[in-house]
Amino acid sequence: MSINAEEAKPHQPAKKPNHIKLFLLLLNCVLLTVGQVAGPLLSRMYFLHGGKKRWLSAWTVTAGFPILIFPIAISYQAAKSSRPKGSRFFLTRWLFCASLLLGLVLGFNSYLYSFGTAFLPVSVNSLVSSSQLAFTAVFAFIIVRQRFTHYSINAVVLMTFGSIILGFHMDKDVPKGEPLTKYVLGFFMTIGAACFHGLFMTLLEYTQNKAGVPITFDIVMQVQFVISMSSTLFCTLPMIINKDFETLGEEAAQFGLGEGKYYMILILATVALQIMIIGSLGVVLSSSSLFAGIITALLVPVQQVFAVITLREGFNAEKGMALALCLWGFASHLYGGYKAKKQPKCNQEDELSQVHKEEGHV
């Protein structure tokens, strides 16, 4: 009995990392929720009241990356005393190069996203963007060999169908006075953004799997910093060519809500969208690209509700039904994860009971 008690002790601390991982996942989900809801609304407000710089809107998606310096610095100081001599705190060369390339993909995706935001209402934009869940599922199956259960398939189908329902009365949301060609172009640009976002999320998970080092909180922060920095630089070059920085004051003076609110909306959008990126990358690195896609799809009806409150967009029965389907799909995914975690314990109990039966027969 004493030997069994001693053997049981080393297994007890293993619970702590699981609690930390769960806390980080929940924290990133909260950040993703705040950014995903507030960011697109602020970006749409910029275009609704006279903003026309699409590269500037794309630039705001990741331009807030310097705020990551503070958690990185705090984490560095906290780990400085406990870190063994000669250990690598910063990214490996492979992770750094992979993060730079991922940043370029994110930068191009941000431009496609801002193009759709310029010409589509939030309700339509979020609807089309939700197709990224299907793209993420396909890319996850091909690139990272994501295993699907009937629970996760049920979640993808329900949440995708719930988002499609929102398009039944799409014609009522077409902005007045907007040319049909721009609306259609924005529609297909948003589909392209959804496709690239699904590819980006999957490639990020693939990078994590091939990192060759433990994915700690420090590594997550550094990867996010390099990706956001690379994306911002990608969007900065076209802004310099188009002289967007030089004409910023002119656009602010002609902004419909006033010059002060012009800068306030841009700053708040930059912060909100950076929070969205931090949360999105954090969810992938803490869980999977498929789970991040499900969370994003779940937030589509939530965006509809806030669009009704802040931008006075219409709310109908279809949007209520979409909200119910998305919640149902999300609950299905969570239940599938619970069943998957419970299954090994059941198998172990069956194996032990079988051993006891055999010993009894002997």
Give a description of the structure.
- This protein is mainly alpha-helical and 362 residues long.
- Helices cover 77% and strands 0% of the residues.
- Helix 2 (15-48) packs parallel to helix 5 (93-119) and helix 6 crosses helix 9 (180-209).
- Mean pLDDT is 78; it is low at 1-16 and 355-362.
- The chain crosses the membrane at residues 20-38, 58-79, 91-112, 118-144, 151-170, 182-204, 216-241, 261-283, 290-309, 321-338.
- Belongs to the purine permeases (TC 2.A.7.14) family.
Quick structural gist:
This protein has 362 residues and is mainly α.
Spell out the blueprint of helices and strands.
Layout: H1 2-8, H2 15-48, H3 54-60, H4 69-80, H5 93-119, H6 122-129, H7 132-143, H8 150-165, H9 180-209, H10 217-241, H11 248-253, H12 259-286, H13 289-311, H14 317-361
Membrane topology: Multi-pass membrane protein
Family: Belongs to the purine permeases (TC 2.A.7.14) family.
Protein name: Probable purine permease
The first-to-last residue Cα distance is: 22 Å
In helices, the fraction of residues equals: over 70%
Order of helices and strands: HHHHHHHHHHHHHH
Share in β-strands = under 5%
Low-confidence stretches: 1-16, 355-362
Helical element count?
14
- Category by helix and strand content: mainly alpha
Let me know the largest β-sheet.
none
Average pLDDT rating: 78
Computed Rg: 23 Å
Shape descriptor: globular
Count of strand segments: 0
Q: What would the keywords be for this entry?
A:
disordered N terminus, PUP_plant, 14 helices, purine nucleoside transmembrane transporter activity, disordered C terminus, mainly alpha, 0% strand, purine nucleobase transmembrane transporter activity, Probable purine permease, transport, 362 residues
